[in-house]
Amino acid sequence: MSSAQQPLPNLAWYHIDDPNSPALDELARRFHLHELQIEDCRHRPQRAKTEEHEQYIFIVAKHLHPGQRLVFDDLDVFVGADFLITVSCGDSDYLSRVMQRATQGRVSRLDKLLYIVLDVIVDAYLPVLDEIAEEIARLETSVLENPAPHTLRHILRMKRRLVEFRRTASGMREVVNTIIRMEVSLIDDTLDPYFRDIYDHLVRTVDLIETYRDLLTGSLDIYLSATANRTNDVMKVLTIYGTIALPLVIITGFFGMNLHLPWMQSSYGVWYAAGLMVMSTLGILYYFKRKHWF
Questions:
Q1: 79: nearest Cα among 153, 154, 187, 159
Q2: Kind and range of the H or E run holding 134
Q3: Mean pLDDT of 63-74
Q4: Sequence ranges of the chain with CATH classification 3.30.460.20
Q5: What does the longest C-alpha to C-alpha distance in the chain come to?
Q6: Which of 162, 198, 154, 145 is nearest to 69 (CA)?
Q7: What are the backbone dihedrals phi and psi of residue 73, each rounded to the nearest 5 degrees, phi first?
Q8: Looking at the domain covering 1-105, what would its CATH class be?
Q9: Of the candidates 85, 84, 48, 35, which has an alpha carbon nearest to the alpha carbon of residue 178?
Q10: For 41-64, how does the pLDDT look when each residue is reduced to its tens digit (9 = 90+)?
């Protein structure tokens, strides 16, 4: 059974890695946390949001799931004048990074610790975007060289993931913007530049996501154009073959009638008919060549 941890002994920071733990109920009674927000902690996922109460602020942040790209988990944060509670589902690597930065910076304030928590979460977004940029570059090359159906599935899958990423990043942007605009004593005004820096990172993240979505849309257009062009090439070849075969069908059908026809009594009749078919074929090919149809 999970219990509340205190990662930094000098700060009243309580971390719970199991939302269903009774330790969360104990902290809720101790610090008078609202029951609906405890319910939000236990019913995941929730949208990114910030809610202000008289004695504390409740934040739902979205952090990347370790080991799974573009999969997000909730991090619920309660920050008051004398406590900071974080609730996650399982252990996360960002917790050790928060501890490391707080220890190196000798953090002694809970509002500064809140900044570090959000900054570590948002800093993990950009490396994922760099990986997405490289993957999109490979997709563009694949679309130009071999527009196969699996490439189309990859493009559509990436677009759906970017839509989810944009929704999450936009929600986090609103969370940070709300914190900046709050006029509460829980967060010192001297931290506004730090939160604005997080906000700038989120704005850049959303802009990059929009750019990558446009690139994927362009790749999709290239794929559809390449597929249409390939279909047109196939249809052109088949049309040429069909047109070449048409006079041959007519000639063989003509001489196949049960009537008295020229060359029927001649021993060279079959050669005359074959020569006529060859001449018609060469004539059609010459005409197509003059028209630059192949």
A1: 187
A2: helix 125-145
A3: 79
A4: 1-105
A5: 115
A6: 162
A7: -120, 160
A8: alpha beta
A9: 48
A10: 999 888 999 998 888 999 999 988
Three-state DSSP class for 148?
coil
pLDDT above 90 coverage of the chain, percent: 26
Beta 72-80 vs 84-87: how paired, if at all? antiparallel
Work out the pLDDT band at 259, boundaries 50, 70, 90.
low
How much is the pTM? 0.75
* β-strand partners of 85: 14, 78
User: 117: closest CA among 12, 40, 42, 195?
Assistant: 195
The residue count of the chain comes to 294
Burial of 19 (0-12, 13-18, 19+ CB in 10 A): buried
Rounded Cα distance between 97 and 91, Å, is 12
Backbone angles phi, psi at 103, to 5 degrees: -70, -45
Long-range own/partner contacts, residues 183-189 (CB < 8 A, 24 or more apart): 184/52, 184/57, 185/81, 186/56, 186/57, 186/79, 186/80, 186/81, 186/111, 187/57, 187/79, 187/111, 187/114, 188/109, 188/111
CATH class assigned to 233-290: mainly alpha
Contact 48, 62 (CB under 8 A): yes
104: its two tokens: 């190196």
- Looking at residue 287, its amino acid is Y
- Please name the residue that has the structure tokens 């990114």: 48
Find where tokens 């009674």 sit. 29
Positions of CATH 1.20.58 in the chain: 233-290
β-partners of residue 5 are: 15
**Residue 99, CA atoms < 13 Å, CB-side half-sphere:** 15
Sequence-separated (6 or more) residues with CB below 8 Å from residue 232: none
Q: Measured between alpha carbons, how far is 160 from 130 in angstroms, rounded to an integer?
A: 17
Strand 13-16 vs strand 49-52: parallel, antiparallel, or unpaired?
A: unpaired
Q: Residue 17 is which amino acid?
A: D
